Amino acid sequence: MTESQHDAVVVESLTAGYPGVTALEEVSLRLRPARITALLGANGSGKSTLFAALLGMLGKQSGALRSGAVRIFGTAPGQARKQNLVSFVPQHDHIDTTFPITVEQTVLTGRYGHMGFTRRARPEDHRAVDRALEQVGLSQLRSRSIGALSGGQRKRAFVARSIAQGAPLMLLDEPFAGVDRGSEELISTVLKDLAAAGTTVLISTHHLEGVAALADDVVLLHRRVLAAGPAEDVLTPQQLSAAFGSVFSAGFSNPGPGGNP
Ligand SMILES: Nc1ncnc2c1ncn2[C@@H]1O[C@H](COP(=O)(O)OP(=O)(O)OP(=O)(O)O)[C@@H](O)[C@H]1O
């Protein structure tokens, strides 16, 4: 078995972008299974474009172009989504706060891929929802309208939806943006538990704070992959300065003396 057959995600020479913009250039990376990888990059460094590629959504945006290859557990991204191999927690949920859907119903939508055409929830779907709500500490708020949650609680609800889906690869776009410290700590703990149980987790973030404590591996992205590897190798002041020196003043938080972000 080759090394790539052990990887959860393989991206080879991916070049992608939009009319007049090359968002990703010759990006190659591998995600090791059952680990948390942080995709670190400043605003506009290509994180969302890479997520779109991993979700097989790139071609759906008008004018998007791409070359290269992406495999999720050896499968093309669009197929991987259909097979429930990948779940996604978006940065913005674009919720209509007047829409009358409860927290529980929101989390249950994560089970749709398991229910077939009838979308009739079975006992195992309800059990998965119960477990996921418990994990993110929202059991008590399950009957509340999703629009009546705080930003941090709502993020936890969407993490629960992703957990309930039960995909072996979980992608989270800026999971800590606009989230209070308590929700951030809770989500971090949940992600560590999921990875320990075998889920491969990829989070994008432009905040250095907390990454060292959370991520096993780090990918530094700035249209190209500037560095990738175990967090302790990548998150050094030297590496960050070499890779992002000019970016510290344009979006990154300074890791501080000693480089312990
Ligand atoms: N739909 C689009 N059409 C044209 N250009 C786009 C589109 N989406 C993104 N871009 C451009 O592609 C580049 C990469 O953007 P992308 O959103 O992937 O970066 P990002 O790292 O996710 O940024 P952020 O942290 O601000 O979300 C940027 O220059 C951006 O302006």
From TrEMBL:
Protein's name according to its UniProt entry: Metal ABC transporter ATP-binding protein
GO molecular function, one term: ATP binding
Family matches, as PANTHER family: IRON TRANSPORT SYSTEM ATP-BINDING PROTEIN HI_0361-RELATED, METAL TRANSPORT SYSTEM ATP-BINDING PROTEIN TM_0124-RELATED
Species of provenance: Nesterenkonia rhizosphaerae
Pfam families noted in UniProt: ABC_tran
SMART domains: AAA
Keywords, sorted A to Z: ATP-binding, Nucleotide-binding, Transport
UniProt family annotation: Belongs to the ABC transporter superfamily.
Domain ABC transporter as annotated: residue spans: 9-248
